[in-house]
Amino acid sequence: MTSSPFGAVPLTPTSFLDRAASAFAERPAVVGEDVELSYRELLQRCERLAGVLAELGVRLGDVVSVLSPNTHTLLEAHFGVPWAGAVLNALNTRLSVPELAYIVEHCDARVLIVDHELERVGAQLADGRPDMILVVAGGSDDGYEAALTKASPTRIEVSDEHQLLALNYTSGTTGRPKGVMYSHRGAYLQAIAMSAHTRLAPSTVFLWTLPMFHCNGWCFPWAVTAAGGTHVELRRVDPQRIWAAIRNDGVTHFNAAPTVLTSIAYGPWADAGPSERPVSVMTGGAPPSPALLARMAALNLHVTHLYGLTETYGPAVICDWQPEWDRLDDAERARLKARQGVVNQIGIPLRVVDENGEDVRADGQTLGEVVLRGNNVMLGYYRDEDATAQANAKGWLRTGDVGVIHTDGYLELRDRSKDVIISGGENIASIEVEQALAAHPAVLECAVVAAPDERWGEVPHAFVVLQPGATASEDELIAHVRHRLARFKAPKRVVFGELPQTGTGKIQKFKLRAALWPEDRSSSH
Amino acid sequence: MTSSPFGAVPLTPTSFLDRAASAFAERPAVVGEDVELSYRELLQRCERLAGVLAELGVRLGDVVSVLSPNTHTLLEAHFGVPWAGAVLNALNTRLSVPELAYIVEHCDARVLIVDHELERVGAQLADGRPDMILVVAGGSDDGYEAALTKASPTRIEVSDEHQLLALNYTSGTTGRPKGVMYSHRGAYLQAIAMSAHTRLAPSTVFLWTLPMFHCNGWCFPWAVTAAGGTHVELRRVDPQRIWAAIRNDGVTHFNAAPTVLTSIAYGPWADAGPSERPVSVMTGGAPPSPALLARMAALNLHVTHLYGLTETYGPAVICDWQPEWDRLDDAERARLKARQGVVNQIGIPLRVVDENGEDVRADGQTLGEVVLRGNNVMLGYYRDEDATAQANAKGWLRTGDVGVIHTDGYLELRDRSKDVIISGGENIASIEVEQALAAHPAVLECAVVAAPDERWGEVPHAFVVLQPGATASEDELIAHVRHRLARFKAPKRVVFGELPQTGTGKIQKFKLRAALWPEDRSSSH
């Protein structure tokens, strides 16, 4: 309608690095075991990375995959890859080679940057794609660093904020991984919302416990940079290292799944006493238990519960704390804190709908499916119009998650999308595991459901009916799946016998789950 | 490039009220002397206001003016007017009737909502515009409330985020007021940036000391709502009332010019002791003096310095505090805090340019004009292409402010270009002289302007207000400045007495100059 001569500048999260390098040039941007980069240096390295990619022939809209733990290399890719005009595809380091091969094939990755610890996996992937260029980062023969040193700084400015910024593959609930498309605009807005809600500032010291390959680290590579805080590298999610960072590096914030929090909250390193300064901890994937919340608080680690999906750039929903709740007793506060909450500041109010798409009553009782809409909902699934259409309920994203709206407007999930197993913060699609099992010649029918696990929260548990006359042992079937999928997706137990079915032949998974879960918990599954 | 089926929803700051009413329906949105509204009620009232306007014949793109102190009515207009598809024009209550008449004429206001305290002014304005509908809010014959009660809720969703949202008239420095055009997108982004930088949350209790008619209150009507905080009405900027709110209403945040802070920091109400809880105070318009900063901190009122223009939706620049600075001594911290700072999280790095438009050296010494660009820079001046073109330097907004970039990237203003004193061919930044004066313990407030001089062309001339009970002679203050600055920068004269101020607390230097200059010269300053 009206255009501004002073710039309706396209929204892109890479602009946060321009601000940081201008405002905080000499402040620490990244601190790691053997690296320390100022914001001036980080900007220069990201512009050189764009130069490297341009020299390798990467063109506008090409995909660059990165397979790396939480290092500065992966952080740099969040700025340098878009500055080459390319699309960032951060790969889940826990996936098996066939799964990774499917992804780099599906998104037609032109370049794969691989951390030296994963060099063998990278070589296997490159074997299958002769045209894909492999760049190894770190280690004794650091090709990434060598290329950076020689490269000319470059950057392609984004012209359309709705342009594709990143592809994050999610196993979702059915079969093959789907490539969730993030736009520059969506990531920009989500990053600002994360900055606002978690109160990031130049004084922030952010520990990278959450994998950056997971929803682009909930957009925190950009959010922490927007605020001019410091990123602390963490190659491995190890409670000893995390506590060392909390005690020695001045950590103020970190994000992690409740299973990771459990590993932090208990054990010899936690027993050494609480953090000197309060630490803000964001958690999602499963509600933190009252015991865990109390233990964390005693350690001066203050937990906020979030909810989101890969499809929503990470946390679309936050359990925004109301000051009146401070006056409640511990049990009541834990109950409120375990709810998923309300949409974040840039969100459109979420809805919980019945099978006809009508809003359910906000009575804390009536179940419905959570649907979301807005600027922090994905563009769609990459090259998969069918899956995008299936997720679309009249412009609202179907989450597959079932919950209730409380009378105060807060969402509480009651049933994770019934087929998904959340193990150590990772989604495992039960169907995917079932398909792997079913590929074994002795298997006639099978069902995989979540079983409770002290360490991982949930683990896959298989129920199998064998072909008449066939034989197979539990260990054999587990090995069979491990051969095909990431190790963490393989069932921990296999039970043989009949499967309960509905009249129309659908397997009644809720009955299988009921056998595995304590009474009070099974009802929520 | 790619369009999302799940909504690239237009950015509009009215959406923050949808979030708040969904997430915090029963929490206090507005608290005032005789009003208390929950977010549910505020939403309903704003939708009814849109209904009232529609019934009065207001159509898409029409202008609705509001003349009111900081009441819930003016807050409601920030949502209800856009929901009628109309453009909000909040009028400066300190302007004269002819000035206001010029504005409502220029923007062709269809409706004028006027607070009952200003009913007489409203009637005079309506006399001159027979087609403009006058609605009186508050008082014994509350037309606004009566209309609201009868109206049907309505709203027109914004279809284009670049659409005109608000017109804020600025007198600038010369001639007629100019209508600064704000877009939905710009106000949305600025509001989120304000929320992030000032750490707004549901626990925020925001006191309305800053006039909402001033840059739409720096976009805080939307920012506080985005966070779900509570707005505290304040009809008059009166230190007694402000202290009552701080002590009794749990205020956590307020914004005000340094002259207002001075009135808060000294006097009997301040002497009653510090605030029980820390209060975040944002100030702009002039750098806070070290004495004021120290006094405020002792009162548990913690000041952040900001800089912006009506043309930049309020604070485009913020003195973002770096944790390393905590270790410096008081004087050094005050010096750093008095700098204007760096662009806010949504900003494009600012530039300081010479007369050829080239960036000056970032050496803390070389003067240049500050230019700004980005999503929080205005669409332009309403119906004034010439003025818009004059402000435009190749896509950058000319601020008319003269400053330096320090080696660490922080901006420090040295003067308005028109306030620079040219003495014997040397430029003297009046602010530099003022800061030297303000360092004298007896000085409460001061202003330095150019006086005519036969020999030097211009010489600095100081106007000073002393601390209550303090004494200092003219010679003593001149000697004090000579001790700190080059001799030629010291005032030739010092006059003691009140300083003329604008409605927003800015010292009106042009009035001081007018007293010193013959008629023809003063007008050019």
CATH topology of the largest domain in chain A: Rossmann fold
Strand content of chain A: 25-35%
The total count of strands of chain A amounts to 26
Oligomer: homodimer
Q: Could you characterize what this model shows?
A:
Two copies of one chain form a homodimer. Mean pLDDT of chain A is 92; it is low at 520-525. In chain A, α1 packs antiparallel against α2 (39-55) and α2 packs across α6. Chain A is globular. Chain A is 33% helix and 26% strand. Chain A starts with 14 loop residues before the first helix and ends with a helix. Chain A folds into three domains: 15-236, ANL, N-terminal domain (Rossmann fold, 3-Layer(aba) Sandwich); 346-415, Luciferase, Domain 3 (Luciferase, domain 3, Roll); 420-522, GMP Synthetase, Chain A, domain 3 (2-Layer Sandwich). Chain A has a nine-stranded mixed sheet with strand order 2-1-10-9-11-12-13-14-15, sandwiched between helices. In chain A, strands 16, 17, 19, 20 and 21 form a five-stranded antiparallel sheet that branches. The longest helix of chain A is centred in the first third of the chain and has 17 residues, at 39-55. Chain A has 525 residues and is α/β, with parallel strands linked by helices. Chain A contains 19 helices and 26 strands. The interface between A and B is large, with 70 and 70 residues.
What is the topological layout?
2 copies of one chain form a homodimer.
Chain A: H1 15-23, E1 28-32, E2 35-38, H2 39-55, E3 63-67, H3 72-83, E4 87-91, H4 97-106, E5 109-115, H5 119-128, E6 133-137, H6 143-150, E7 164-170, E8 178-183, H7 184-198, E9 205-207, H8 215-218, H9 220-227, E10 230-232, H10 239-248, E11 253-255, H11 258-265, H12 268-271, E12 279-283, H13 290-298, E13 301-309, E14 314-318, H14 330-337, E15 342-343, E16 351-353, E17 368-372, E18 380-381, H15 385-391, E19 392-393, E20 396-405, E21 411-415, E22 420-423, E23 426-429, H16 430-438, E24 443-453, E25 457-466, H17 474-484, E26 493-496, H18 509-516, H19 519-522
Parallel strand pairs in A: 1-10, 3-4, 3-5, 5-6, 9-10, 9-11, 11-12, 12-13, 25-26
Antiparallel strand pairs in A: 1-2, 7-8, 8-18, 13-14, 14-15, 16-17, 17-20, 19-20, 20-21, 22-23, 24-25
Helix pairs in contact in A: 1-2, 1-9, 2-3, 2-6, 4-5, 7-9
